[in-house]
Design a protein that fits this description.
Two copies of one chain form a homodimer. By secondary structure, chain A is of the alpha+beta class. Among the domains of chain A are: 201 residues, 2-Layer Sandwich (BirA Bifunctional Protein, domain 2), CATH 3.30.930; 85 residues, Rossmann fold, CATH 3.40.50.800. Helix content of chain A is 39%, strand content 20%. Chain A is built from 15 helices and 17 strands. In chain A, strands 1-5-6-12-11-10-7-9-8 form a nine-stranded mixed beta sheet. The first copy, chain A, is elongated and about 90 Å long. At the A-B interface, helix 1, strand 1, strand 2, strand 3 and helix 3 of A face helix 1, strand 1, strand 2, strand 3 and helix 3 of B.
């Protein structure tokens, strides 16, 4: 052993690892999300972290994105999952004949993205996803339910969020109406970055695509519509007669009626035509949640409707809608801004410190208190003083000192570490005092 | 889309994936383990799933065991963790100046082992580990606490287990006492499989090592000692005067005194000298838990004491003791033997079925019931009959049918799906009936 060269202990960059008292808080947040998802009758699913590359990379025809952790084991090409949506698609395609639809599942688990490590970016992320999958059809109430779900989670956290909601048919249809259907995707890429690059640059880029000034201006104008859901909806509903556009309007109207029925406070959501959600698989309702007091956090939650979740694996049409909370990133942002829920850095309510030969008696006391609270016996060999220091440092609220005299008398020295008060009480009295 | 070749949806062999109603049960078991670990004042830790190969494979000097999922990303050699102990060692070595000792942590998470898929073997396993790490020293009460912990978990599960406990110093010292110290490891390998290969074959193999008949016989005799902790301890305590042997006896005596103080029922643990725990890092107390009614399950939980957890990463001596429950394997065994706790295949208590244009009213009812139970609105477009069938199949206990007449009268049709009884009640009366 003594000859051995030591290896400097370290972890990979971009992987969050919390000290246990912070982990307690993260677990608490995870539990709250889980309990709200379950309250809305979502059932748990846990898919493997590793999947066949052929399955996970079906979208890219098996091509490995550089962000994906992919490797070969034996003669099998495998990937670590980079989201929870593709595994869900695989799962429902595999189990379509055993599931009852609409299938409401949640999954809380880690996903892996091998991006370059940079501030605020993680390679291992806990995602908290809830999705509703239909067979052939799925009513629009499901879209509203996902928004309600996210709103309930953040309300439970005591965090103010605003859900920015749109429907992709609006901009798709608007482009169609302008006769620009073959340029729609390029247009959306530009409009998606409107907030970042500004109106001037967006105009320039749209014109470069071959749009007229009028077309570019109209597109930017409609994209900038954002605010009270009912008012914005009223103001845009006749901006285009295009069929797809009107489909978007109808869908937004229906979703709006459900948001009201769910009694989500009206200040908690807006209609925001600028919500585009990149060039991904969404086909209808799309939404992103922001914290108005912290726009710099970006979207802390997002989701939307997809028409055909499992299209790579089955001909059975399965429309779905889902919402995803990026817990790792959210926790990191809250932590850095001192916004984490305040909870004690320990779960220990009472620590028993044995003095002299009283250890076995202390274990009996521990058993008694454990029925009501987390109770620990400090059996460390260190000095009494260092034990008191460590209890202080860990902010343990109560200490019980048990020497031989105490065992004989049945009266124990209980100390309230916050106030400094000390009592001499029986076991039962100690329990009452602590409670 | 129509031209696209479909990929058959499938998952990797050896990876457990449960249907949601079974996942509910697994989650319930995981929660119980977690709550007992926390009750004993263990704090949560969550280390990354990926680690640097140099760190994780320090033991083998960086050599990749074929069971480890290892690969290169960019120019970094990484591994998926194959246990939770090595990451713990890395963590305590990295954070030794910030932690308070004894450091009690639990970690529940997945580990990965790329072994050949075979019946009952998994490549992705949920491990539930609890360890206690000391600085320089760690009292033997910690060993007893780990055994108590496992006993509490299985008691909570309603499963009968017996903890088979030994101390490696017994057989180490016994070999030393026989002058066989240079052959100890080879001897232990043979004695470890005594139960499998039988006395005859073990004798033959020991003799082949160059032991005398008397030595081999004595080693087999002592290894076969198993039974009531106090009685076996009494009967073996003078079998060798060797110092290491006597250290083992003393340690077992002390651990025994704590097991009694913890009031673990005596039928729940035995002293079993045959517990060796392979050729691994354990140095003192070792234990394996078996289900006496199901010896074919093998050890469902195991652990022990290691003298120097983080020796590859730091010169600071950190003795530890830990216990690990292999939840994936345990769940699989219980499932296959129809021994899983019986819980409802759904968490839904009440499902509201809207008839006609009553959806928004149903959402208000849902909100009312959700304060007390999991309540779902079935907004599926399918027929009423198919909704009733699906509720039946999912074993949802109560159904509430809400048509326009019900909305007007404020009296709803509530159906108990088990008994078939149907009521006509107000919202409040429905709540009372269900509760």
């Amino acid at each position: 052993m003594s000859e051995k060269k030591l290896i400097t202990p370290r972890k990979l960059a971009g992987f969050m690892e919390l000290e246990p008292c912070k982990q307690l808080i993260l677990n608490e947040m995870e539990n709250k999300i889980k309990s709200i998802y379950e309250k809305f009758a979502f059932m748990p699913l846990d898919t493997p972290i590793l999947e066949l590359s052929e399955i996970l990379l079906a979208k890219s025809g098996g091509d490995i994105d550089k962000e994906v952790y992919a490797f070969t084991k034996g003669d099998t090409n495998v990937c670590m999952r980079y989201d929870l949506t593709v595994p869900l698609a695989r799962f429902v395609a595999m189990n379509q004949f055993n599931l009852t639809f609409p299938f409401k599942r949640y999954q809380i688990g880690k996903v892996f993205r091998g991006e370059k490590p940079q501030k605020g970016r993680f390679r291992e992320l806990i995602q908290c996803d809830a999705d509703i999958i239909g067979l052939d059809t799925l009513p629009l109430l499901a879209d509203a339910e996902c928004i309600k779900l996210a709103d309930s989670v953040f309300t439970e956290f005591g965090l103010k969020i605003v859900s920015h909601i749109s429907n992709r048919n609006i901009l798709f249809g608007y482009c169609e109406g302008l006769g620009l259907e073959d340029k729609t995707l390029d247009i959306l890429i530009i409009l998606d970055k409107l907030g970042k690059i500004g109106k001037e640059n967006a105009l320039y880029e749209l014109n470069k695509l071959g749009l007229t000034e009028a077309q570019s201006g109209a597109l930017i104008d409609i994209t900038l519509n954002s605010g009270d859901f009912g008012k914005v909806l009223e103001s845009i509903k006749n901006l285009s007669e295009n069929e797809t556009y009107q489909k978007g309007v109808k869908e937004l109207e229906e979703v709006y009626s459900y948001l009201k029925a769910y009694e989500i406070p009206t200040e908690n959501y807006v209609l925001d035509i600028g919500i585009i959600r990149g060039h991904n698989y969404y086909t209808g309702t799309v939404f992103e949640m922001y914290m108005p007091q912290h726009p710099e956090f970006g979207a802390v939650c997002a989701g939307g409707r997809y028409d055909n979740l499992a299209g790579y694996y089955t001909t059975q049409k399965m429309p779905g809608v889902g919402v995803s909370i990026g817990l790792t990133r959210l926790f990191d942002l809250l932590d850095k801004n001192d916004m984490l829920p305040k909870i004690s850095p320990t779960n220990i309510k009472l620590q028993i410190i044995p003095l002299g030969d009283t250890l076995t008696h202390c274990l009996k006391l521990q058993k008694y208190f454990q029925t009501q609270m987390v109770c620990d016996v400090n059996y460390d060999a260190r000095s009494f003083k260092s034990k008191m220091n460590s209890a202080n440092k860990r902010e343990i609220p109560f200490i019980m000192i048990v020497g031989e005299t105490e065992v004989e008398s049945g009266k124990y020295a209980l100390k309230n570490m916050k106030t400094g008060e000390q009592y001499n009480l029986s076991m039962e009295e100690c329990l009452n005092k602590i409670k």
